[in-house]
Design a protein that fits this description.
Elements lengths: L1 H18 L15 H9 L4 E3 L7 H11 L2 E4 L11 E3 L5 H11 L3 E6 L2 H17 L2 E6 L8 H14 L5 E4 L2 H8 L6 H20 L24 H9 L3 E3 L2 E3 L11 E8 L2 E9 L3 E4 L16 E6 L7 E2 L12 E2 L1 H13 L2 E6 L17 H7 L5 E2 L7 H4 L2 E3 L4 E3 L1 E6 L17 H24 L5 E7 L2 E7 L4 H12 L11 H30 E3 L7 H5 L5 E3 L5 H8 L3 H12 L9 H10 L4 E6 H8 L6 E4 L6 E3 L2 E3 L4 H14 L2 H12 L12 E3 L4 H46 L27 H12 L2
Parallel strand pairs: 1-2, 2-3, 4-5, 4-6, 12-15, 12-16, 23-24
Antiparallel strand pairs: 7-8, 9-10, 10-11, 13-14, 17-27, 18-26, 19-24, 19-25, 20-21, 22-28
Helix pairs in contact: 1-8, 8-9, 10-21, 13-14, 13-15, 17-18, 23-24
């Protein structure tokens, strides 16, 4: 085929040159790479050479062409460096190859090569791999012996299968590719284009009337030193200036004879054969023209058991109490066990649960760059899918694929549930704040003063009362609202009791009305809150938020040693979380725990001196488990989700994604959470999440009321005693004065039988105090020395 293409264009060139009356000869293509054969052909007067080279002959050919100025056009592999007089038809695949690897996000693959060309491309791949932290397994298949190559190839791919190396880059000569892939590598298009380039170059030289005949300075390869051909430079220049559309697209060369401005088609092998999914060029790099790179193709899964990696973490995956009586998947129960069964049912595949060996979720070691946990199982091909409480993060998304979140959550704080606070003696005052009580006192005094003033200034508050005192009638204007009666009226209204006096004037009634309205609202509000405050037992938490944690030093706090929560604090740029991370990484002893169970146990045994940072869903679940001594405080520190993970490029990805969306729309995800979180809860309907518990009133709740009652009664008795003594002394003095006056003027004593009574707060007419025997007795008692 290649020779047919060459003969076709050779005939056209000879015809073209003969019509131009120029004698130009075109000799057969060189197959032998020996120097003397090349020199012999050169001596026969060739203008340019078309042919192939391999790793053994390439140095000889490039040296020969560079020395004698003879252009060599070849579809063989591109050479590194800047070679003169070498026109390379084959584009360099290093750029497209690297772009394709980056696009598919391959970070682990095998590279099979067999020649110097493969080695040079491998070197570029390895340099990029070191920079981007790829894992490349390089295998030289050129050293395999021909008589045992079939067995060697089978052994090679068996080894790759055992290592789960499912991504292979094949960079070999056509005979190796044929043996490995059982396909024939064809270079007809490049051969056809190469001859077309030569034709265009010679046509250009002819139009420019440039003499390229070998009549003058033919050159001599046998001379010492060798003499180059003078017109060889002109032919090389003409070849590099060719720009034509060939079978391989745009054909154009740079100053070093390398293809430029070319396009490489990107093909993907589908079940129905290779399909073009995009292209690569030097300007746009990787361009995808077909978006369905990973179709929902689960063909073949019916006969394959999918390995599902997970982790023992309640309530997601737990061993049954009688697990020894079961085998395989029947030994486990939990949220993720039910979820895996639903996913398998929707996608139509069989599966086997596999507990991750190291018991970790997945993080990359800072030194070795190796992934552990479930993420490592997927990255290194030990599992096909991960159904577990695996948080979707950026660093994990770079190496594995996630489905849509099947559960939303955030980082929360777990502490040991504090002891219930004992109610205070005056807890009945708690429904209203201290400031409100102070304002009520000031309002009470202010209203009483205002009522006293308006009663004094208003003429309608004064009235006249008629009374008889023996045979004498007198008229006197009185005002009932003195300062003490005003205070008594305001206090009676506030206590919802009232008194025997009320305002008569409009201004006084306005004061009374607004005070009644004020007391109605205050008393109603107080009564509404009183029941809740007296019948609810409260717990006083030492911390309520992450800010409280960060600004104190008595309570230690930490996270799981390997997981997304630790990575969140390590990578966070928020000042608060960065401060918390600085504390956690330098704390002694270490605040990190190996498992969630260890963290919960540390919280329970710390007597309130350790707080554990974990996902809110797990925090809520543990609150529902006995001994119900942990609690979640504050809100979530972030927002994220759990997703089902698959290896990069897995055909399961779309099927699993659609299954998760369907389960969410059907409400099954919520049912599963209620089943494993709340229906199986052990702490009652309120659970550990409840900070308050309604109970019957105890004496300690209302002890303050009794104290006030006893105190008020004692104060009343004390005031009564003071009033009694004060009045008795006053009566004794009055009686003494009256007796002395009677001794001086006996006739006037008959007119002083009645005495003015003691008035408090307002004028009143009362019978005079005439209990003489009692008065005399009290006077004598008070006058005893």
């Amino acid at each position: 085929m290649c020779l047919s293409s060459i003969k076709l264009f050779t005939n056209e060139i000879l015809k073209f040159m003969q019509d131009s009356h120029n004698v130009l000869l075109f000799y057969q293509i060189l197959i032998d790479s020996l120097f003397f054969s090349v020199c012999s052909q050169f001596s026969r007067g060739v203008y340019a050479i078309f042919g192939f080279y391999d790793k053994k002959s390439v140095n000889t050919i490039t040296s020969f062409c560079g020395t004698l100025h003879v252009s060599f056009i070849t579809p063989s592999f591109p050479l590194d460096g800047n070679q003169q007089f070498i026109i390379q038809m084959r584009p360099d695949i290093k750029g497209p190859l690297l772009s394709l690897i980056e696009y598919y996000k391959w970070d682990k693959f095998a590279y099979l090569y067999d020649s110097d060309r493969g080695l040079t491309t491998l070197q570029v791949v390895l340099d990029t791999a070191a920079e981007k932290k790829w894992q490349v397994t390089a295998i030289n298949v050129g050293n395999m012996k021909d008589e045992r190559k079939d067995e060697a190839y089978r052994s090679l791919f068996q080894d790759l299968e055992n290592k789960k190396e499912r991504r292979v880059i094949l960079d070999c000569e056509q005979d190796k590719v044929k043996d490995i892939m059982e396909q024939v590598y064809k270079s007809i298009s490049l051969t056809y284009d190469a001859v077309q380039v030569m034709t265009e170059a010679f046509r250009y030289l002819h139009k420019q009337r440039i003499d390229i005949s070998r009549r003058a300075n033919n050159g001599d390869c046998l001379a010492n030193p060798a003499v180059p051909w003078a017109q060889g430079v002109e032919i090389e220049r003409a070849l590099k200036q060719v720009r034509v559309d060939g079978l391989t697209g745009n054909i154009q060369f740079d100053q070093y004879g390398k293809r430029v401005n070319y396009t490489v088609n990107v093909m993907e092998l589908k079940s129905n054969g290779p399909v073009k999914i995009g292209y690569w060029n030097e300007v746009d790099k990787m361009v995808v023209t077909k978006s369905d790179l990973f179709p929902n193709d689960t063909m073949g899964l019916e006969n394959k058991t999918v390995i599902v990696t997970t982790i023992l973490e309640a309530p997601y995956v737990m061993l049954k109490k009688n697990a020894d009586l079961f085998v395989d998947n029947e030994r486990y129960e939990g949220y993720c066990v039910d979820l895996a069964a639903e996913i398998a049912k929707h996608c139509g595949f069989k599966y086997q649960l596999k507990i991750v060996g190291d018991g970790k979720y997945g993080a990359r070691d800072a030194e070795t760059k190796i992934w552990n946990g479930m993420v490592g199982e997927l990255v290194y091909g030990k599992a096909d899918i991960a159904v577990a409480p695996l948080t979707i993060t950026l660093v994990r998304e770079e190496v594995i694929d996630f489905s849509k979140p099947f559960m939303s959550l955030g980082i929360s704080i777990m502490i040991k549930k504090p002891q219930k606070s004992k109610p205070g003696v005056f807890s009945f005052l708690d429904p209203l704040a201290y400031e409100i009580w102070m304002c009520i006192v000031f309002a009470y005094i202010g209203v009483s003063v205002v009522l006293f003033l308006v009663s004094r200034f208003s003429p309608y508050e004064w009235h006249t009362e008629e009374y008889e005192d023996g045979q004498i009638q007198t008229n006197e204007s009185t005002n009932e609202f003195g300062i003490f009666n005003s205070l008594w009226f305001s206090l009676g209204a506030f206590m919802r009791q009232g008194c025997d006096i009320s305002p008569r004037s409009l201004s006084g009634r306005i004061v009374g009305g607004v005070w009644w309205f004020f007391t109605l609202i205050i008393i109603s509000s107080y009564t509404a809150n009183l029941a809740a405050f007296l019948t609810v037992e409260r717990m006083v938490s030492p911390i309520e938020s992450a800010e409280d944690l960060a600004k104190q030093s008595e309570i230690a706090y930490g996270t799981l040693d390997s997981g997304s929560t630790k990575e969140f604090f390590r990578r966070s740029k928020i000042a608060l979380f960065d401060k918390m991370w600085t504390y956690m990484k330098s704390a002694e002893p270490s605040v990190f725990v190996k498992t969630t169970a260890e963290g919960v146990m540390r919280v329970r045994k710390s007597k309130g001196k350790y707080a554990y940072l974990l996902e809110s869903t797990m925090n809520e679940y543990i609150e529902q488990r006995k001994p119900c001594d942990t609690m979640k405080v504050g809100g979530n520190l972030d927002s994220k989700g759990y997703g089902i993970a698959t290896p990069k490029g897995s055909s399961l990805r779309n099927a699993v994604n659609l299954a998760v969306l369907k389960l969410n729309e059907q409400g099954l995800l919520d049912k599963l959470k209620n089943k494993w979180w709340y229906d199986k809860g052990e702490c009652g309907s309120g659970g550990g999440d409840s900070k308050e518990k309604t109970s019957a009133l105890s004496l300690s709740n209302v002890a303050g009321v009794f104290y006030i009652l006893v105190g008020g009664l004692g104060l009343a008795m004390l005031v009564a005693l003071v009033e009694f003594c004060y009045k008795s002394r006053a009566e004794a003095k009055r009686m003494k004065v009256a007796k002395n006056a009677q001794n001086i003027n006996p006739t006037s004593s008959q007119n002083s039988q009645n005495f003015a009574t003691y008035k408090e707060g307002y004028n009143d007419t009362r019978p005079s105090f005439q209990s003489v025997p009692c008065t005399l007795l009290l006077a004598s008692i008070c006058s005893i020395p």
